[in-house]
Write a structure and sequence with these properties.
The chain is an alpha+beta fold. The chain has helices at 6-10, 16-28, 34-41, 47-58, 79-84, 98-113, 123-133, 187-200, 218-228, 242-258, 264-274, 280-291, 296-302, and strands spanning 31-32, 62-67, 71-76, 118-119, 143-146, 152-155, 162-166, 172-180, 205-212, 308-315. It folds into three domains: 6-95, Winged helix-like DNA-binding domain superfamily/Winged helix DNA-binding domain (Arc Repressor Mutant, subunit A, Orthogonal Bundle), CATH 1.10.10; 118-227 and 309-315, no CATH class; 242-302, no CATH class. Strands 4-7-8-9-10 form a five-stranded mixed beta sheet.
Length: 331
């Protein structure tokens, strides 16, 4: 947690712990519940929470929103607080729909679960870290074009939590959290991976954490990640791992020797591989496999992963005040 902005928030009439909490909310979510503040205090919800919420409401910094189950969500809407946090134009100040609010509450739960993480809070911090500290080109950062001429773009528009920590083998390990606020399928996760894949492949070490309040999408999300990033690792020659290339080579050889009569699964493998393995190096390697100059075993032995990466699923065992059957209680 950055402490640079907290003294300025304290001067608005808050205690150190209250100011620290407001900084976390401004930086990561914009929305919170009573239990979030109690959790930061490591206390049972009680008088200290009531005193803080009354004070923040009287100062006009926080607005209470009523939801189902007779529960409330609080919105940090004060431009003053965001300005003191260096985020005067933060989207967290804006009113959101139920899905957007739930997403932000889940992000705050994720952050509070491990305050030791060093988060890249703003777009500026993210761009600075990836381009200056890691030397990654701007054109591989996830962006969403807008405007008719598409000459401008917005970077990291999804505001996915990104944290960094020192790493033994590499200088930095970068951790990306995808937050599923209740999707019925993993289509949003596929889109997330597509938008971030170019950046992920440039990193020496990274983790992707699929965060949700139910485990229903965990198996499919795991399968999708491993399809793009096989456990054997990735390299410039084998961006999806050596096994993926070998599967393509076998399907191509069968296609060529059968006159184009292959199974549908092989056809899908061919179509997928043709988009990836198009360089002279791939053609040369395929020819050497066909004529026996190199074997599959030798390729497996000689291929070296150039990245360290890991995929995790993370279950938020909390309830949210929305009409949803997702929550099944703590496990």
């Amino acid at each position: 947690m950055s402490t640079d902005y907290i003294p300025a928030i304290e001067r608005q009439g808050y205690t150190l712990r209250e100011a620290s909490f407001l900084y976390l909310v401004a930086a990561h979510s914009g929305y919170f519940m009573r239990r979030h503040f109690a959790r930061l205090l490591d206390r049972v919800d009680g008088a200290m929470c009531t005193h803080f919420l009354t004070k923040a409401g009287n100062l006009g910094h926080v607005r209470r929103l009523a939801f189902s189950q007779n529960r409330h969500v609080y919105h940090l809407q004060s431009k003053t607080i965001y300005r003191l946090c260096g985020a005067e134009n933060s989207q967290n100040r804006r009113m959101k729909g139920e899905t957007g609010i739930k997403h932000r509450l889940m992000v705050l739960d994720y952050v509070l679960d491990d305050l030791r993480q060093q988060f890249l809070v703003t777009v500026e911090k993210k761009v600075e870290f990836f381009t200056r500290d890691l030397g990654i080109p701007m054109d591989v950062l996830p962006c969403l074009p807008f405007g008719e001429d598409d000459t401008s773009s917005r970077l990291f528009i999804d505001q996915a939590p990104i944290s960094i920590r020192q790493h033994g083998t590499h200088r930095w390990l970068v951790r990306f959290a995808f937050v599923d606020e209740g999707a019925k399928t993993i289509k949003p996760f596929r889109r997330f991976l597509s938008e971030y894949e170019a950046l992920l492949r440039k990193l020496p070490a990274f983790e992707v954490v699929y965060t949700a309040d139910t485990d229903v999408n965990f198996p499919a999300a795991t399968e999708e990640f491993l399809r793009r990033f096989p456990p054997a690792g990735a390299s410039p020659l084998f961006p999806r791992g050596v096994e993926h290339f070998l599967g393509f080579a076998r399907a191509r050889l069968h296609w060529e020797r059968s006159g184009g009569r292959v199974e549908l699964t092989e056809l899908a493998t061919l179509q997928d591989g043709q988009k990836i393995y198009r360089t002279a190096g791939h053609e040369s390697l395929y020819a050497r496999l066909v004529n026996g100059a190199v074997t599959e075993q030798e390729l497996r032995r000689d291929s070296r992963a150039t990245q360290e990466f890991r995929f995790e699923t993370y279950l938020l065992e909390e309830s949210y005040p929305f009409q949803t059957p997702r929550y099944r209680g703590r496990h």
